[in-house]
Amino acid sequence: MRRMEAGVAALQRWYVQRTGLYQTTGWWNSANAITMLVDAMHAGLPHSNEAIVSNTFTQAQIIVPKSEQTGPLTKMSGNVGFLNEFYDDEGWWAMAWIDAYDLTSKPEYLAMAQSIFRDMQGGWDDTCGGGIWWSKKRHYKNAIANELFFDVSASLARRGTHTDRAEALSWAKKEWAWFQGSGMINADHLVNDGLEINKSEGTCRNNKRNVWTYNQGVVLGALTEYSRATHDATALTEARTLADAGLTHLTDNNGILHDTCEPKCGADANQFKGIFVRNLRILDHDLHEPRYRTFFATNAASIWEHARTDKDELGVVWSGPPAEINAGTQVSALDALVAAAIDR
Fold first, then answer.
1. Domain assignment of residue 333, given as a range
2. What is the CATH number of the domain that holds 48?
């Protein structure tokens, strides 16, 4: 608990009250920061931190005048309704507001998630037999956008009115059936980045691009929510297979999680590992797997002992030394600290 609280305090030094976002990282990363804060409150962080969630809900939608934009704010401005060009960005915010709704029961959070979900539905078409596009320019169908669409739909299938739940469940079933058959899950039960689309041949196949930890992770939480909504035990069996593949192939000999980009992961990938851990924790809530609890404890201890500065700032390489530190690396590492602290 002490480690989690110290890490959150360090994170909040990057928080900008006026924008509701975090300096040194991007718009979608701030959605993950809100999700982590909510999870930390579930784990015992004081609920006074709900004020941060509320402020972000209001401020992160406000259009920032160009004269006031600096750094990352240039591409963040004007995302009213938490919508932008990228369906995966929208999915992160939908999941953040679902989590916030579960914590607070405030209907505006659930309504926002449902509104985002309706926009994401517009990304679906028959190219590759289904699935949503990564962006509204419709040039790439990838794992993360579709995993998030699955996660949002499966999560909303257990929340809201009966009509809302029925529609969401229909989409969740449709998305999971498509994702399973898309080819993005390879023979090692690892999730590659997306699909190679050959329009002249009318074919879509696994592009064999990198296996990122967050692609291996989001599907775990989505399948857990899907199992809860459908009472389908096979979803948890599939999630266990994917989780175990991730732990086998994406950790070092000491059990520490890594992405292939380390130690220079850039603005996006420095966030990925925490997303894997967060979703494995969701799965573990239903499976109660000792191996997963050991993984959480091992990674949290390594972060605190080897990837932390004297200011409690946390780096991208969890085996250390602390490097490439920003709000994104802080949130990612905090996801691991929360997983180790939370009571199942």
1. 2-341
2. 1.50.10.20
